[in-house]
Amino acid sequence: MVPQERLQGPIPWVIAIMVGLMVIAAAGALALRNTGRAATSDLAGGITVQIVEARPEVRARLAERAALVLREQPGVSDVELVPQGELDALVEPWLGQDAPEIEDSAGGSAYADLPVPALIDARLAGPADPARLAALRAVLQREVPAARVDAQSTWLTPVFGAIESLTWLALALIVLLGLATGAAVLLAARTALGNNRGTIEIVHLLGGTDAQIAQIFQRSTAIDAAGGSIAGFAAAWIVVVLLGRTFGALQAGLVTGGALGWSDWAVLALIPVGAVALATLTARWTVMRALKGML
C-alpha cells in the first residue's frame, strides 16, 4: 500500500529535524531550571552586610564589630568577613589594578584610593524575609550605623525572572514543534491515502476492514518516525554535549549549576518516544477518519 522505501520519504527527515529541535529546546529548559534551583538553594537565607565608611581603619573596626553582633544573633550562622583581597579582585575588572585618576577641587587630576565598602557574608536559618531583615537592620543600626543589610537573593531577582520566562518560552517552542510534527504526519498520511485510493477500494471489496487498512499505514509511519526520531535525538545529543562543554569551560557559578544530570537525560529520551507515539496515533486517526468518508 505504501511502496516508498524506508527513510527515503520526507516524513523521517521532518521528524528528525523536529525531534532534534525539541530535544535542544528541552535541554535548554532543563538547564535553566537547574540553574534557577541551584542559585535559589545557594542564596536562600543568605545575607550581605556592607559597611560604608571612607576611612579604612574605621571601616575595618566597624566591620569586626558588625560581624561580632551578627554572630550573637539567634538563627544567624556562617558569618564571614570578606577579605580585602577578594573585594579588590571584584572591582579590578572595572577600576584596574592601579588607583583611578580623579579630578581634584582645583580642577587638576590626582590619584586617590577609592573607598570600597567592607562586606560580611552570613546565612540565616530560614529564608531572608523582609521581617527578619528589618530586625537585623535595627540591631546593627544601634551598634554600627554604617551597616547596610541586603538579602543575596534580591540581587538576582531579575535574573530569576528572565530564567523563568526563557523556560516557558522553551516549553512553548516544544509544543509548537510537536504540533508541527503532527501536522506533517497528517498531510503525509492523507497524501498516501490519495495515492493508494484504488488499492484501498479493492481491499474493501475483498472484505478488508478500516482497522486493517489503518494498521498498515500506522506501522509504516511508526517505522519512519522511529528512524527519524533516533537520528534527530543523536544529532541533538551531540549539540547539547558540545554546548555543555563550552559553557562549562566558563567556570561561572550560574552556568555550572545548570549542568544536565542522568534524570534530565531520561526526560530528554522521552521526546523521541513521544514523537513516535504522536506520529503513529496521528496517522491512525487520519486514516480512520478518511476511510469513513471514502466508502
From TrEMBL:
It comes from the Bacteria. Keywords: Cell cycle, Cell division, Membrane, Transmembrane, Transmembrane helix. GO terms for biological process: cell division. InterPro entries: FtsX (IPR004513). The chain crosses the membrane at residues 12-32, 166-189, 225-245, 265-287. GO terms for cellular component: cell division site; membrane. PANTHER family: CELL DIVISION PROTEIN FTSX. This is Cell division protein. It comes from Novosphingobium aerophilum.
